[in-house]
Amino acid sequence: MKEYIIINHLIGSKSGQVEGFLISNFSEITIGRSSSSTLKFDKQKDSMVSTHQAKILISTTKPYQFSLLDLNSRNGTFLNKRRAIGAVTLKVGDIIQAGLDGPAFEFDLNPRPSALSSHIPSIGTIKRLVLEHIAGSKTGQLEFISLNDFRELIIGRGETSMIKYDIYQDYMLSREHAKITVDSKNPQKFTITDLDSRNGTFLNKAKLLGSAPLNFGDIVQFGVEGPAFRFDLQ
């Protein structure tokens, strides 16, 4: 049976597109805007992607073993909102992004090996969280967060933030404003916590005091009239 690496494009000029690569034909898949890249991005539209951004390494000795390596890219390569440093293990359902706000895609396999399918974290058929930005400099943008190894999501204007807002335009946010965490015993339960922010965090227009359950469809806002997003799943 032929086995493929499947790339589900989520953000960028290829959003909505799906690409497949026959595993037996490759030892690595290079990613970038170069004409020689295996996984090519548009030179004008996908400016966050470097000419040689990163590559996916395919193990020739261990089946279904993949890793991601950043190629000293300008904006960094992020795996599930964490910057990839050195070669990092790549799993089905992981989301790879060029820069924190650049083009992003989900890594998958077809067919999915049965041994892997049982380890794909999901809620029913849900594979990822989605933040739909409805106010602020990110208005109209979507953020996709893989459920793989999900522990917490820091939101703010600081360098350590995983959902990072513009330091000038989104001044209502603190450097580390709030965080979203998942219940270690129940992956269907999420919590949002205000991190002693200057202007406060609002959940469905009510000011958050400490932590509160976060449900799908809830609107989170930073400051009374600051940037906001809708928390959802896909």
Detailed description of the structure:
This protein is mainly β. The protein has two domains: about 5-115, Tumour Suppressor Smad4, CATH 2.60.200; about 130-234, Tumour Suppressor Smad4 (Sandwich). It is built from one helix and 22 strands. The protein has one helix spanning about 115, and strands at about 5-10, 20, 30, 40, 55-60, 65-70, 75-80, 80-85, 90, 95-100, 105-110, 130-135, 140-145, 150-155, 165, 180, 190-195, 200-205, 205, 210-215, 220, 230-234. Strands 2-1-11-10-7-8 form a six-stranded antiparallel β-sheet, with no helix packed on it. The chain has a six-stranded antiparallel β-sheet with strand order 13-12-22-21-18-19, with no helix packed on it. Strand 16 and strand 17 (about 190-195) form a beta hairpin. The protein is globular and about 55 Å long.
As residue ranges, the low-confidence spans are 120-125
CATH architecture of the largest domain: Sandwich
Helix percentage = under 10%
Number of helical regions: 1
Task: Write the element-wise H/E pattern from the N-terminal end onward.
Answer: EEEEEEEEEEEHEEEEEEEEEEE
